[in-house]
## 1
Amino acid sequence: MSKLETLLKLAEESVRAVEDPELRKIAFQEILRHNLRSEEVPSGSAPRRPSAPPRQTKKRASPGARAGGPLAVRPEVETLDLSPDEPGLVPWNSLSTDWRKFCWVLEAARQKKIDGLTNAEISYVIDKVFRQSYEPKVVNNLKVQIKNGMVKPATAKSGDREYAVWRILAAGIKEVTAKAAVAANERQG
C-alpha cells in the first residue's frame, strides 16, 4: 500500500464517527489536507503545491522621487525656475483654493514657454517650489474647472512621447494674474 493510500485510509477512519454527511466531508478534506502537508507525497500522485511566500509591501515614493518612473516629469519641467512672487501673477500665499494654485502653476509655466502640465508635473512643481504636497490624483480635480472655462485637457509632445496635460484658458489666467486681481479690487472698493 502506498503512502497516499495509507493517508486516505487514515482520513476515512478518522471521520467515521461523524454522522452528518456534510461535516464528515469537510472533516475528511481537512484531515487529508493536514496529512498531505506533513507527509511527503509519493511520485506518481498529485504534486504538492508550494506555499506562496508572504507578501511584502512596498513604500511609495513622493511624486518628486518618482519623476523618472511611471509618473514622469519632462526635463523642461524639471528645470522650470519659478518663485512665489512671479511677475504678473498674484502672490502664492493669497491663493485660497487648490484649483487656483494649480492654475497659478499652469500660468507661470505658460509664461516660461511651457504650455501645459500633467497632474504629476503640477504636483512636482508645487512640491519643489513651495514645499507643499499634492498627490497627482488631487491635481486631477482640475477637471471640475473645465465647465467654468478655466482649463482644458490637451496633449503635449516631448521627445518621442505624448503627455496628457492641462492647459490654462483665458478665464483661468484672469483668476491668477495680478492685473485682473487689481482691477477686481478697484471695482469692489
## 2
Amino acid sequence: MYPLFDKDAELVGWIDPGKHIFDVDMNWVSYISNNNAWSVETGNWLGPVPGLICLDTSGKVIAWNPEDHVSGTSRPPRPSRPSHPSRPSRPSRPSRPSRPSRPAKPTGGWSELSFLEWISQ
C-alpha cells in the first residue's frame, strides 16, 4: 500500500498498485483495471493510473506518490468499461507517512479537480 498526495503534498488516499485506491479512512473508492481507475460508486472512468500517479480524464495529475515521476499526459483515449470487481477486504490503516516536498509543476499541469471530486465523478 502506497500513500497518495495531492498537489499541496497533503495525504489524500492510498493505492494498492494495479488493484485498488482507498481514501484516507481506508474506504474503497476506486478499482484499477488495465492501468485505468474506475469509480466504485458510479462505475465511471476516472482516468489513467500509470504506476503510482493518478490522472484525470484529460491527462492532468490528481494524486501522486514520491516514488514515481510526477507527470501528466495528453488527453488519453477512453477505455472500455471493465467488469466490476468484488469488494476487497478492508486493509488495516497504514501509519501516516511523512509529508513529502511539493513536486515541481508536472508536465501537463495539475488537475482542477480535488481528489474527492475525482473519485466522486
## 3
Amino acid sequence: MVEQLTTAAETQNCSVSKYVASIISENLSRSESEENRKRQILKSLCGALDDPTFVIPSELSWEDEIPRRYDLYDILP
C-alpha cells in the first residue's frame, strides 16, 4: 500500500501526506455534498403529500408501545 501511495503521490507531483490529505478532503466534501443533497430532497418533499386525511399523529402513549425483548443476548449462541 505504501508503494501505491508513493507512486500515486509522485504522479500528482506532491508528497504522500498532501496526497492523502487531498483524498480525505475530497471524500469529506463528497459526503457533505451528499448530505446537503439529501436535505434538499427532503425539504422539497415537505408538503408534497396533498391528502387532507394525512395528519401528523399525536405522541403514542406508553400503552401503545411495542413490547421489547431485552433477553435476546441470553438466547443467542
